[in-house]
Amino acid sequence: MPLLEVRNLTVTFDTASGPFKAVSGVDLSIEPNEIMAIVGESGSGKSVGMLAVMGLLPKSATVTADRLAFEGQDMLTMSSRARRRIIGREIAMIFQEPIASLNPCFTVGFQIGEMLKTHTSLSRGERHRRSVELLELVGMPEPERRLSAFPHQLSGGMSQRVMIAMAISCNPKLLIADEPTTALDVTIQAQILDLLVALKNETGMALALITHDMGVVAETADRVIVQYAGEQVERQQVAGLFSAPHHPYTEALLRALPERAIGNRLPAIPGVVPGQGDRPTGCVFNPRCPYSTEMCREVVPPHQPIELGRALCHYPRNTEKAAA
Amino acid sequence: MLRFLATRVGLLIPTFIGVSLVAFGFIRLLPGDPILIFAGEHGITPERYHQVAMQYGFDRPIWTQYFHYLGNLLHGDFGQSIVTRRPVLREFITLFPATLELSVCAIVFAVIIGVPAGVLAAVKRGSVVDQGLMGTALVGYSMPVFWWALLLVIFFSGILHWTPVSGRMDLLYFFKPVTGFMLIDSLLSGQKGAFTSAVSHLILPTIVLGTIPLAVIARQTRSAMLEVLGEDYVRTARAKGLSPFRVVGIHALRNALIPVITTIGLQVGMMMAGAILTETIFSWPGIGKWMVDSVFRRDYPVVQGGLILIAGIIMIVNLVVDLLYGLVNPRIRHR
């Protein structure tokens, strides 16, 4: 049984100018102890989908799905009280802006301890010991002293370490990391990623890594989902994705990686992700796709079979290298 | 922290001098002669007038009078009332507990209702509850105090006979003031029913004096909460699986209270200066009524001394608010 199973997830926001589909028809499953990367440009709906799983979207969002289940338990129909027993304890999440994600009015110790107090029956002293242990685990220097620090006294990297310590405090089975390194210095980025991978190996949890950085995907992920304009355009094992991308968008993303560039110009993808008002007819990617035809402009493409990464495309690429 | 305190206390000295100058100058800018007013319609002979003026030093140049007054102040001598002949400081000390008791009750009333109302409005943003609460707050804020007071008196005292019309205590009870606070003194006196009487006398003035601060606090809490509820750390709190009550009441409110505390401080300062209208309507023997009466009598020493004492109290309240601010906001404390 997969840890997290999502089928046909759709998130619609009520906006002043009418409903806006931020995520549409996303399928995914995450197995225990794997790293699933969710990749896409800004506005591709990759965070919104995961926030929907966590139940963290504002009231203006409507979440529908054929199935949204954690360890077989249906999360769409369960009470909010039952959901809160899963959120934080079984599924934890860390965010893009670590400094803003910690409450400025409370100490690090309070914020970690609160998590333990909510989800475990540890005593006060045990919670303290566990907090110190957690800070040690995430590589925080002087953990004992840091417990009484306030977030404004920490750097971005240290704040993210605290967030991670807090997230893993109740041994979650799934950690959702929403662009955990985007806001950090380049040197710190690698440290935090290494830490996440090490913790995943140590604790056996699964990791859902939301990122727009294909380099990060190549280094860490087991499987990859590529999202574009709220739609899931491809889903593959990481090796297959890099050697034989089936969707033209994935192909373009890979071509835009500096280390893969041929010649002295970096091939960018022309245009931008369509927003609420300018969604094209047919395939959402057709205005930016080098291979688009009349058919792409008029007919919504189907998902290709799993061997072709379920690519959302009329003309999938690299069909000769279909996964067995 | 110590340096912060020292700077703040150091700043009090120039403020104090400024206040004394203004207090001394302004009452003298008003037309009307205290000796003539005191003499009344019978008038006064020029000889007697001169004698009284010399007694109070009014014949000397104004800056000499000021420095003489300032010198006395440094010795703790606020002078004595021209009308009652009693020391200004003693009159103030006698009357201030009444004002303080009423102010504390009013601010507690305003905070206890205003903060939850603001939180509720923010959480239910845009709903009927929000609109109802904020509409009521606007009415409370805009209503003339004397009219609101009269409405309450007519309804609760006149029609329902639930509360007394004015004063601090029923005439049935008599006891010597120990602390000056009726709630405490009535308990100390041990007389049955005295405490209830003190409470019932406090209810209407508390509501009247607390209404505007309540409205201000509710609106301020709402806007601070709205801002805070969109912050990343509130999302983190939700992601931790905390109950909505903890997310809103602990994680969001603690941050939203930072600007609200400043507002509360300003409101307390204003109340301490004596609630002139409220005290007058309910015949509440506090310093607001005392100051107004003294202005009409051109009782120079009382007006000057009263103003300086009130200013001093406001300065202390502000200092306390700043210290509290540091307590609530760690980013200031650790600078």
Automatic annotation (TrEMBL), chain A:
This is Dipeptide transport system ATP-binding protein. InterPro entries: AAA+_ATPase (IPR003593), ABC_Ni/Peptide_Import (IPR050388), ABC_transporter-like_ATP-bd (IPR003439), ABC_transporter-like_CS (IPR017871), cNMP-bd_dom (IPR000595), Oligopep_ABC_C (IPR013563), P-loop_NTPase (IPR027417). It is a peripheral membrane protein. Belongs to the ABC transporter superfamily. Keywords: ATP-binding, Cell membrane, Membrane, Nucleotide-binding, Transport. Residues 26-89 form the Cyclic nucleotide-binding domain. Gene3D superfamilies: P-loop containing nucleotide triphosphate hydrolases. Pfam families: ABC_tran (PF00005), oligo_HPY (PF08352). GO terms for molecular function: ATP binding; ATP hydrolysis activity.
UniProtKB/TrEMBL annotation, chain B:
It is found in: Cell membrane. Residues 96-325 form the ABC transmembrane type-1 domain. It is a multi-pass membrane protein. SUPFAM superfamilies: MetI-like. Its main location: membrane. Keywords: Cell membrane, Membrane, Transmembrane, Transmembrane helix, Transport. The chain crosses the membrane at residues 12-30, 95-119, 139-159, 194-217, 256-282, 302-328. One of its GO terms (molecular function) is dipeptide transmembrane transporter activity. One of its GO terms (cellular component) is plasma membrane. PROSITE patterns: ABC_TM1. CDD domains: TM_PBP2. PANTHER family: DIPEPTIDE TRANSPORT SYSTEM PERMEASE PROTEIN DPPB-RELATED. Belongs to the binding-protein-dependent transport system permease family. This is Dipeptide transport system permease protein. The lineage of its organism: Bacteria, Pseudomonadati, Pseudomonadota, Alphaproteobacteria, Hyphomicrobiales.
